[in-house]
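A.,

Following up on our hallway conversation. Structure tokens first:
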């Protein structure tokens, strides 16, 4: 991509190249993802039915397989923040999500995730130090009629909260992850929903009942939808 022809000055060109490098992306991929994110945000605001199709198309940007970075996957990634951190818990409370009633807007975002990822299930949760509050959950069997709760110690959400990073597993049977009642799931991916201050207040996750190779395109799509959810809870 020749950014010089767009009218950007050298300063912006350098910043774009620098941030693309930090994201581990080519300049083309970085720019395309920024455009897709903006487009999806505007379509979602307009309640356009094209959102899921746009996100599904975005998956084709890259097709390389991605796996958990630790080749010795007998334990979760190193933790960086305790789930009971007082500042994080304050950020969770500020969302007002824990214990809140079912909301069609969140159901819609969960359905969008399911369709865009071509997965068999998707959910949006908010997490304090004891409970994973599942605000919206959809799957091949339908949509949950009411929000549900799961104890944090029985959920893989704890790993995502403490690392603040996307968790990717093509077969959770090869990893030591606390899945609790969801132990029948095989392929799993979850990404953090963050506050403006950068604390992980919730997670967006998807799953399949068979092994699945998640691609960088899948990861970026899930992270882009998590960003949309973040805008909802500001």
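Then the amino acids I'd put at each of the 234 positions:
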């Amino acid at each position: 991509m020749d950014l010089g022809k767009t009218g950007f000055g050298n300063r912006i060109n350098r910043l774009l190249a620098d941030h693309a490098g930090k994201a581990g992306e080519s300049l083309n991929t970085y720019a395309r993802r920024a455009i897709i994110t903006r487009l999806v945000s505007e379509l979602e605001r307009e309640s356009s039915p094209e959102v899921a199709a746009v996100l599904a198309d975005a998956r084709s940007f890259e097709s390389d397989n991605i796996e958990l970075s630790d080749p010795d996957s007998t334990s979760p990634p190193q933790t960086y923040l305790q789930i009971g951190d007082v500042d994080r818990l304050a950020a969770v409370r500020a969302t007002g999500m824990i214990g809140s009633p079912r909301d069609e807007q969140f159901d819609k975002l969960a359905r969008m995730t399911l369709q865009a990822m071509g997965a068999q299930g998707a959910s949006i949760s908010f997490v304090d130090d004891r409970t994973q509050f599942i605000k919206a959950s959809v799957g091949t069997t339908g949509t949950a009629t009411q929000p549900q709760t799961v104890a944090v110690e029985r959920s893989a959400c704890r790993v995502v909260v403490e690392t603040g990073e996307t968790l990717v597993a093509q077969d959770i049977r090869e990893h030591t992850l606390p899945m609790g009642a969801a132990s029948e799931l095989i392929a799993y991916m979850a990404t953090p929903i963050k506050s403006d201050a950068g604390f992980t207040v919730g997670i967006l996750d998807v799953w399949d009942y068979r092994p699945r190779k998640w691609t960088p395109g899948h990861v970026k799509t899930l992270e882009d939808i998590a960003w949309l959810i973040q805008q909802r809870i500001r």
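The CA atoms of residues 120 and 132 lie 20 Å apart. Curious whether your intuition agrees with the design.

B.
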